[in-house]
Structure formats: C-alpha cells, structure tokens
Amino acid sequence: MNDIGPDLLAQPPMQSVFHNGIGDIAATLWGVTGLAFLAWGLAGRDRRLIVPAMLLGGMCTSSVEPLLDVLSGCLHPIIDQRTAVFTLMGRSVPLWVVECYGLYYGGFGSLNLLAFNKGVSRRGVWLWFLAPLLGDILIEQSLLHYNLYLYYGNQALEISRFPLYQPAGNSVGELFGVLTLFFLRPVLSGWRWFLAAVIAMPLCAVMGFNVVAWPTYYTVHSQASQAVVQGSGVLAWVLTGVMVYLASLLVAVDSPLRKTGHLVLA
C-alpha cells in the first residue's frame, strides 16, 4: 500500500484497524491531564486567561491534522474507529488527537508564553524550545508503540517507525504561535485572548511545520534515493535551528536588536 506511481502521493495503508481500547485509554488520560492543567491555570492570576485560551486554541489546531497527515505521510486508522471527532481529506481525527493537540500546542504553548512574558535570555529561548521538542518525541514514541497511528511512505530519519523531522515541525509550529501571541499581548484582554489563540495557533502550526518540513514532503511521496531522503530530514533540522535563532533575536531580553534599539517591545 506504500506504492508510488508517477505524480502520485504515497498510498496510505487504509486497511489498518483502529485500536479502540487503547484509543479510549489515551483519550481518558489526555482528558484528565487537560482538566488538571486547566485547573492549574485558573488558580493563578497571571495565567487564568492565557491557559484556558491556549488550551482552546490548541484543540482547534487539530483542524490542521488532516492536511499535515497527507503531506507528511501519516494515518490514523479509520476502520473500527468509533471516536472520530471529524474527517477531512479522507483522514479521520479521533478524540485523543484533539485532546493531545490541546495539551501540546496549548499546554506547552502556555508555559512558553508565560515564560516569554516574564522575560527570557537567548539561551532561555533555546531551552524553552526543547520542552515541546522533547515532549513530542516522548508522546509520539509512546503512542506509536501502541499502534494508535502510523507513518508511511519514504520517511526521513526514521527510528522505531518515528520520523525525527516531525518533532521539529511541530515544535516550530508551536513556537510561531507563541511568538504571535507574545507580540499581540499588549492589545489582548478578556475574550480577545480566546479569539487570538483560536486563530493564531492553527495558522501558525501550519506555517511553522511547513517552513521546516517542506523538504520531506517531496521525498516521502517519492522513490528518491536514501541519501536524498535522509538529506531532506537533515535540512528540516537545519531550518529548525534557523527559526529558533531568529526567534531568540526577536523575543530575548538580551537580544542585540534590543541593545541597538532596533526592536521595541511593550
């Protein structure tokens, strides 16, 4: 089912069966964790708007999952799946994915945004970027182990069925969303936080993922040599480094742009 014809996308293994029992466990765990994180957010004056807004924005970000799945060769099995929240582009998105997006883009996003609001150094930006990056690796390796979804096609940097350019794309997408809200924060209050998060997080997730992962889109759906395929994955990481470096120049308190007066933040 991974055959690739002329000018065609890699064909997903549509005969794969969804494991409802494991999916229900994942949905329960993510749901309970999300509620606990929400409770933590509401308990703090400086985060009682940001955290719920980001969690909602993160859940809405799951709307881009079908597009990224098609581009990067990922499939959530449709057969026997009873918890699908929506289906687009022939891709079904189960409940646990929506919850996981909420915690990943909303949870890590909240922590990053709160840190940026307090002020971080350029080194701190890199360290905070590592949180969603390592979180993605841990989450995906665990879920892939239980066959909740799968990657197919000519994947780059694949270890234990996991293509390592994926955490780079997801983390940069989360970072783009956080940066957007960071610069918008002087004009955000009340319901505006929710509107901004719901709009910014999905849009930035697509932009961020595509900025760094676009080289792999061409190889995952091709019969290119392994040198080219793996090179596309390496290029994705190079682009990731460039994006984080630029982010550090924009947001860090010790950025040379601030010292020279070329960047003024409210």
Give a summary of the structure in a few sentences:
The chain is mainly α and 266 residues long. The chain has helices spanning 20-42, 50-60, 65-72, 95-118, 122-145, 165-184, 191-220, 226-251, 256-259, and strands at residues 74-75, 84-88, 91-94, 150-151, 158-159, 162-163. The termini are far apart.
Sequence of strands across the biggest β-sheet: 1-4
Mean pLDDT score: 93
What is the helix fraction of residues, given as a range?
55-70%
Helix and strand succession? Answer: HHHEEEHHEEEHHHH
Low-confidence stretches: none
Radius of gyration: 19 Å
Q: Termini distance?
A: 53 Å
What's the total helix number? 9
Describe the global form: globular
**How many strands appear in the DSSP assignment?**
6
Strand residues, percent: 5-15%
How many structurally independent domains? Answer: 1
Could you give a short account of the major beta sheet?
A: 2 strands, antiparallel
Classify the secondary structure makeup into a structural class. mainly alpha
